[in-house]
């Protein structure tokens, strides 16, 4: 029995995107459940799985149970293989599928860049992840929870982001400058916080901008 062909046969019999009566929907559900539970001995190669996905992504539901059934093919250590990371990013709901498979965005990035340090998808995903993290942290400034790690680690991450931003031809100079200013300020405030009523008081005392709401 061929695990991929059997999966395709279910959707050939009960097509996606077509109206199915209740009995047919139930039959498809039961067929998929049986497929998930059947102990297939022979599993496809990574190449065969990729070919199947690209050839049938509009014909079958590339669901979380589908990929869980084939985990031994795409898993790589604690994350996943680079080819599988690229496959997920190709799919419309790839990131949601990754999270449901207990794969973090960092897992995908690590897989891609370990395979090819210049991988465009990996670099772009890493850039987007870092940028969103910095942007979010600035808006958390009023609650004085800007830093996740120690100051040197955070500043090194900013340096990394600056290099990546320049490499990708982005202009994040304003945000990077704010991160450096506020990260240093918050670290200093934490060291001397007993001298101030709060972070807002510290920023005013040092004539630093109050760009983010403290109300």
Keywords:
single chain, 215 residues, mainly alpha
Q: Can you characterise this structure?
A:
There is one protein chain. The chain has 215 residues and is mostly helical. The protein has helices spanning 3-13, 22-37, 46-56, 64-69, 71-74, 82-90, 94-100, 105-115, 120-139, 151-167, 173-191, 199-205; strands at residues 75-76, 79-80. Strands 1-2 form a two-stranded antiparallel ribbon. This is DUF4123 domain-containing protein.
Name the helicity range. 55-70%
Report how far the terminal alpha carbons are from each other.
Answer: 64 Å
Shape: elongated
Percent strand: under 5%
- Note the run of SSEs as H and E: HHHHHEEHHHHHHH
Number-wise, the strands total: 2
**What is the overall number of helices?**
12
Query: Structural class, from secondary structure content?
Result: mainly alpha
The average pLDDT value, as a whole number, equals 91
Strand order within the widest sheet?
1-2
Query: Unreliable segments (pLDDT under 50, ≥5 consecutive)?
Result: none
**Rg from Cα:** 24 Å
User: What would you call the quaternary organization?
Assistant: single chain
Query: How would you characterize the largest beta sheet?
Result: 2 strands, antiparallel
Organism: Capnocytophaga haemolytica
Protein name: DUF4123 domain-containing protein
């Amino acid at each position: 029995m061929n695990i991929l062909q059997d999966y395709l046969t279910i959707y050939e019999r009960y097509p996606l995107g077509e109206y199915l009566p209740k009995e047919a929907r139930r039959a498809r559900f039961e067929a998929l459940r049986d497929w998930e539970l059947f102990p297939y001995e022979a599993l496809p190669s990574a190449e065969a799985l990729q070919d199947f996905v690209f050839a049938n992504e509009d014909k079958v539901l590339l669901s979380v149970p589908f990929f869980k059934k084939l985990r031994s093919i795409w898993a790589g250590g604690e994350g996943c293989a680079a080819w599988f990371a690229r496959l997920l990013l190709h799919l419309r709901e790839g990131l949601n599928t990754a999270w449901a498979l207990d794969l973090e965005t960092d897992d995908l990035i690590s897989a891609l860049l370990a395979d090819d340090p210049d991988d465009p998808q990996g670099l772009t995903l890493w850039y987007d992840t870092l940028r969103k993290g910095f942007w979010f942290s600035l808006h958390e400034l009023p609650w004085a929870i800007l830093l996740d790690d120690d100051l040197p680690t955070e500043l090194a991450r900013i340096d990394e982001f600056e290099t990546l931003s320049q490499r990708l031809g982005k202009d994040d100079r304003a945000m990077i400058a704010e991160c450096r200013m506020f990260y240093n300020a918050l670290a200093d405030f934490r060291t001397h916080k007993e001298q101030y009523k709060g972070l807002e008081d510290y920023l005013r005392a040092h004539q630093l901008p109050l760009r983010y709401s403290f109300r």
